[in-house]
Specification:
Length: 198
Amino acid sequence: MSGLTTISRTPRATAQADGAGASETLSEIWRALETLTDPEIPVVSLREMGILRDVRGDASQGYEVVITPTYSGCPAMEQIHDDVLTTMRQLGHKASVVTQLAPAWTTDWMTTEAHEKLRAYGIAPPLACATSAAHANASESKTHVLTFAKRTAANQNIACPQCTSNNTTEISHFGSTACKALYKCLTCLETFDYFKPY
Ligand SMILES: [Zn+2]
């Protein structure tokens, strides 16, 4: 996992029993789930966030929607869980939500669309995780410790989402939510949230 990993937008055809019909149904499900957003960042879809991982199953057996929380104990997950089930019910499908914790979510799973939308929303998107390898090792050993490392802020400037100036400074390591830091732009003097990479 290096740099900005793009998540495949194509649903994995886990159920191929009915051929084209089944894959059409899966496409329809992905399109419907695409309208669901992260409750904390309503402009970015669950797929773009890298939260929505997979849809598998078939019409007769029912579907499993696989999601990975952005960080453990994220209060938004309950909302996401309910939203997925409501959407599946509206489509007339039996469904359950599977929460997959390994591999652990990383900001590297966020798509470039997510980055652009965050910026437009006034949140500086996360820089690529400098320690993806260490992150992966931690996940494997199941001792994933949630650390919002200061390294990024210390040696790289975060561009202001308002005016794109790099002349910014961290005011508080914890912004409106634990996963964001509060920054101030020294050029336009606006404060903004920075989505911390992890
Ligand atoms: Zn600025």
